[in-house]
Amino acid sequence: MADETAGLEAALSRVIWLADEHVTVLDSCMRYMAAHSWVGGGAGPFTQALTERRTRMQSAFQTAADQIADRLRTLGGQPLPVPRFAATITIPANAANGFAGMDVEAMTRLVQDLDRAGKSLAEAAQRLSVESMTACVSPTPVHQVAEVATWATTQVPDLRRRLSTLQQEPQGLASPALTAFGLFGAFAPDPHGTAKLLTAAANYDTTAFTKLQHLQRTGQDPELAARINAWWRQLPPDRQAALLTGRPHEIGSLNGIPAATRDLANRRYLAEQHAAVTKRLAELQKSSKEAAAEIEELELQLRQMNAVNKSLALGGVNGVPPALLLSIGLAGLNGQSDLGRTAISYGNPDTADNIVTSVPGTGTKLDGFASDAARATIMWRQANRSAGDKQVASIAWFEYDAPQWDFGLLKADRSVASVNIAVTGSGALASFTDGLRATHQVGKDPLSTVLGHSYGSLLVGITAKRRIGTFADQLVLVGSPGVGAGRADQLGVDQVWVGESPQDLVADLAHVPYRSETGPGGILFAAQNPSGPFGTDPGDPRFGARKFTVQGTDGGLLATGAAHSSYWNTGSSSLVNIGYLISGHYELVEEVLPPSVRTSTATPSLLPTPPVPSPRADVLSPPIPPSPSPQAPPTPPGG
Predict the structure, then answer these.
(1) How many of the other CB atoms lie within 10 Å of CB of 594?
(2) What is the mean pLDDT of residues 100-122?
(3) Which of 147, 212, 354, 423 has its CA at a distance of 20 to 30 angstroms from the CA of residue 89?
(4) Average pLDDT in the 190-210 region?
(5) Cβ–Cβ under 8 Å, residues 639 and 454
(6) Per-residue confidence (pLDDT) for residue 89, from 0 to 100
(7) Are 322 and 344 in contact (CB under 8 A)?
(8) Vertex 193, ends 192 and 197: CA angle to 5°?
(9) What is the 3-state secondary structure (H, E, C) of 537-601?
């Protein structure tokens, strides 16, 4: 008996020493994760898996020691005190200090430490097995330590492969997208099966690209663009080149692909389609009249491509940086509607310090898009004047089916009086801005502005509520009929700015229908409702936005269509203020200070009868006359 207890005491001493040597082997990995991998994607699940294994390993050593001590007591021996092995981890105070990206050197050390921990725990499991058999106790703790060792060593090859890509990033820093889905991509939750789709897309699977584009249009996955960015950056250069040649339109349409790469792919696709359409038109025009429908569609595609080429030509001249074609969709191709779609940036949004994305409104079509592109260049010039040494990127975005001036459709879901178009289009806009974040250069914290004009402001407002806190830093709303919100603070951005021309008919829609109020002497006036068909009037002080000054137009009090398109007029106060907002010079913005807002239920201020038709009972808002045609200088449509 004495020999047996002496053997157990020696075994307990060795197990305590073994535990003391190994219970902290995963601590350095935990610290690296806390300090250098704070972004989403797979980092969180990896940290959780690491934490669970560390706890499981410590508990296994604890159980092994406690079992031997219990056996000693049963035999009448006096075991050594068994310490507690659940040690806490000290995290540096500056671990979460806004680090933008990932320290690749630190992650390299993490992988090295994980490799050493796995090998060390494997040896410890073997030694613990011997002690457990000698002491005649349960081998369960041995299996638990061995499982942790296997897990650690299994992660190392995949992490090293992914690190080889991250080490190629400039200055040893990786983007948040690569941090999340590059190094720890195997742990990322994948509810939409994106990983499988991207693997198939890398093998030129057209169906996979179609599914990715659908997922992108719906905006269901806020991390889709980051996944795409990590996928693209980890592809071998020869595979990237092959995809650019064989699938240019598919690559060019994916948010998360770097802007310069999308431009290369989309210009290649544009040239291919232009040659194909021109050739086919020449063939059909020699044939019978039965080809009239196809000729009409091809001629529309040709007009759309000419508008895109005209827009691209605005870049690289008169001080404006070269244009980047971020997307293109032609009528009737790849399921695209007759309106077409595109996004063009003047300046590279991946490296810019100040980015503005402008969203047009009613009446926008791809074949008339050159005027919307011109507005983007005008804003670039104005913002660049006050940007100093900071780079500006001005993006003209049109990737939704904007409502058109078809008064026969006022009752339909496609009318300007319906929110449905904005709700449907918000997925595409949300995915686009997700892509801007995913591809942006590490180390820069750009000021992101989204500008919505007219119905485009409704789309902007609805999208902002889909991406609370990540959509943009600020919204600029001009000529807005409403943004689908009751208050500015519901939009989840730092600042909301509003500009309204006093004669802008469409901005007046933000507070229709009007109601009658009885003034002094029994005289009837029409008082504005603060809420209209698309939520609270953004220009109403109760909405909570900040307002900048906007010039009036000739015509006195009369509301006009020209006023609705006057915000980009050269030298106008609205354009000057928009430029300051884009560049972040708020101290220079000429702001309209709001009057004190009464919180009582007293009758609101009485206003003269507004020059708008009475609303019909069967529509949400009165008919709106069209703005000037897209080709009419100096200002484009965009109601």
Answers:
(1) 15
(2) 88
(3) 147
(4) 96
(5) yes
(6) 73
(7) no
(8) 120
(9) CCCCHHHCCEEECCCCCCCCCCCEHHHHCCCCCCCCHHHHHHHHHHHCCHHHCCEECCCCCCCCC
Structure tokens given for 599 = 């919180």
Q: What does the pLDDT read at residue 91?
A: 59
Q: Any residues with CB less than 8 A from the CB of 469 and at least 6 apart, and which? A: 492
Residue whose C-alpha is closest to residue 416's, from 537, 540, 509, 535: 509
List, for residues 474-494, the tens digit of each pLDDT value: 999 998 888 999 999 999 999
Q: Where are the alpha helices (DSSP H) in 89-139?
A: 104-135
Q: What is the pLDDT of residues 330-361, one digit of tens each?
A: 999 988 889 999 999 999 999 999 999 999 99
422 contacts 458 by C-beta, under 8 angstroms: yes
Strands 546-548 and 531-532: unpaired
Q: For residue 24, what pLDDT is reported?
A: 94
Residues in Cβ contact with 107 at an 8 Å cutoff, skipping those fewer than 6 apart: 32, 36, 37, 163, 166, 183
Pair type for strands 474-478 and 495-499: parallel
pLDDT, tens digit, 9 for 90 and up, residues 422-478? 999 999 999 999 999 999 998 788 999 999 999 999 999 999 999 999 999 999 999
- Sign, Cα dihedral of 446, 447, 453, 456: positive
Backbone phi and psi for residue 258, each to the nearest 5 degrees, phi listed first: -55, 145
Q: Are 639 and 416 in contact (CB under 8 A)?
A: yes
What is the structure's pLDDT at 44?
85
Residue-range domains of the chain with CATH: 2-183 (1.20.1260), 322-592 (3.40.50.1820)
For the chain, percent of residues with pLDDT exceeding 70: 80
| Cα–Cα dist 48/14, whole Å | 30
Q: What are the phi and psi torsion angles at 116 (to 5°)?
A: -65, -40
- Residue 540 CB contacts under 8 Å (≥ 6 apart), including other chains: 510, 511, 528, 530
pLDDT band at 173 (very low <50, low <70, confident <90, very high): low
Predicted confidence band at 148 (pLDDT cuts at 50, 70, 90)?
A: very high
The residues, any chain, with a CB within 8 Å of residue 178's CB and separated by 6 or more, are: 102, 165, 166, 169, 229, 230, 233
Rounded Cα gap, residues 117 and 123, in angstroms: 10
